[in-house]
């Protein structure tokens, strides 16, 4: 297990895709032409599953900042299309990438990416969506940057329990001592979605608070889908709902949009909502009293670590050289989660400076 000294300052020369709000986006394999080392900088080929994901947009910004003057970052928007992403990997390899940084559309596609990288002896840094351990173990130049998925669920569950215990008299609408909740789940099968869903509720129960699930459905990490789900749940369950739990802040924001339409957060009509990520938009909602808390998923450090490992790999160095990170037994850098409420809002704000 190697230890990080101080981080290299890494930032970027990027040619990235220009996103259109309507969902049409062009992808880019920019920058270096066919040379693996343009202007003396190593070429790092990178993909993000979709640029317009709330959280990943901040990871992307951190990657671009960290690559400046350190790498020619050829960054692509895979537009939530796994076939497109595989084509992008082929193009990046053909354009001379010396390492790959891949945020998979579908974690099950990791083996295909590894097979392509292995054929060219290229290191691969997967980030944010973790491949199966067996796949990672099959290639000695595969690494991962992300989090411990269960940790976010545990912390969110502790947050829910603390907030409920402090406000039970006002929030327990039917006085039965149980939390009647609805839950907006991320992408089915995604490790974070599954772990956050399980561990948030298990943690609340473990603390000794009874729960009752009124509804749970996927919002696919998407605010608009979450608004649609919340609209339907409010129509069906109305005042029976006592808590809204979301696997990420994007869906929490979508739920809040629905709740506002129904008259919540006005007068004394309130609904506790929690998310995960601590994106700036969610921090604004916490400050405005429309979210009770979230869990910091550190986009800045995830983007920074991804680029640091990828640059070291592209330069033929140990991936941890000159960094402060450690690898665990799964060849993974784990960036810790942190609870964020109104009381420590600056923790979230400082992560996005």
Question: Would you write up a description of this structure?
Answer:
With 353 residues, this protein is α/β, with parallel strands linked by helices. It folds into two domains: 41-145 and 298-334, Response regulator (Rossmann fold), CATH 3.40.50; 148-295, Response regulator (Rossmann fold). The protein is 40% helix and 20% strand. The chain is built from eleven helices and 14 strands. The strands form three sheets. Strands 1, 2, 3, 4, 5, 6, 7 and 13 form an eight-stranded mixed β-sheet that branches. It has a four-stranded parallel β-sheet with strand order 9-8-10-11, sandwiched between helices. A two-stranded antiparallel sheet has the order 12-14. α7 packs across α8 (249-261). The longest helix has 23 residues, at 149-171. The radius of gyration is 21 Å and the shape is elongated. Mean pLDDT is 90; it is low at 1-35.
> Overall mean pLDDT score?
90
- Assign a percent range to the helix content: 25-40%
Give the CATH class of the largest domain: Alpha Beta
Distance between the termini: 30 Å
- Output the helix-strand order: EEEHEHEHEHEHEHEHEHEHEHEEH
CATH fold node name of the largest domain: Rossmann fold
- Number of helix segments? 11
Rg, nearest Å: 21 Å
Low-confidence stretches: 1-35
Number of individual domains? 2
Proportion of beta-strand residues: 15-25%
Shape: elongated
* Helix-strand category: alpha/beta
Biggest pleated-sheet summary = 8 strands, mixed
CATH architecture of the largest domain: 3-Layer(aba) Sandwich
What is the CATH homology-level superfamily of the largest domain?
Response regulator
Give the number of DSSP strands: 14
């Amino acid at each position: 297990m190697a230890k990080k000294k101080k981080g290299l300052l890494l930032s970027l020369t990027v040619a990235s895709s220009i996103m259109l709000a309507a969902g049409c986006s062009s992808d880019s394999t920019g920058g270096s032409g066919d040379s693996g080392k343009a202007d003396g900088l190593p070429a790092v080929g990178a993909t993000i599953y979709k640029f317009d994901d709330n959280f990943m947009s901040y990871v992307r910004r951190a990657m671009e900042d960290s690559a400046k003057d350190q790498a020619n970052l050829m960054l692509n928007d895979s537009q939530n299309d796994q076939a497109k992403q595989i084509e992008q990997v082929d193009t990046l390899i053909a354009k001379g990438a010396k390492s790959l940084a891949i945020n998979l559309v579908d974690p099950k596609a990791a083996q295909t990416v590894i097979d392509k990288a292995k054929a060219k002896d290229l290191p691969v840094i997967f980030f944010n969506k973790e491949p199966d351990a067996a796949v990672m173990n099959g290639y000695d130049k595969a690494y991962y940057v992300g989090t411990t998925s269960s940790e976010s669920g545990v912390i969110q569950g502790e947050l829910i329990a603390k907030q409920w215990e402090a406000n039970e008299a006002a929030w327990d609408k039917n006085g039965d001592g149980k939390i009647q909740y609805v839950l907006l789940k991320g992408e089915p099968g995604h490790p974070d979605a599954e772990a956050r869903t399980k561990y948030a509720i298990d943690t609340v129960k473990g603390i000794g608070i009874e729960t009752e699930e009124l509804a749970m459905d996927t919002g696919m990490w998407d605010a608009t889908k979450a608004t649609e789900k919340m609209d339907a749940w409010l129509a069906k369950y109305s005042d029976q709902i006592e808590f809204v739990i979301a696997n990420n802040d994007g869906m929490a924001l979508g739920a809040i949009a629905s709740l506002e339409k129904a008259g919540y957060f006005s007068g004394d009509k309130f609904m506790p909502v929690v998310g995960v990520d601590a994106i700036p938009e969610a921090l604004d909602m916490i400050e405005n009293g429309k979210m009770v808390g979230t869990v910091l998923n550190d986009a800045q450090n995830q983007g920074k670590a991804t680029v640091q490992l990828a640059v070291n790999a592209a330069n033929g160095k140990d991936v941890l050289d000159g960094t402060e990170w450690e690898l665990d037994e799964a060849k993974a850098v784990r960036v810790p989660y942190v609870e964020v409420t109104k009381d420590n809002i600056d923790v979230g704000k400082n992560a996005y400076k």
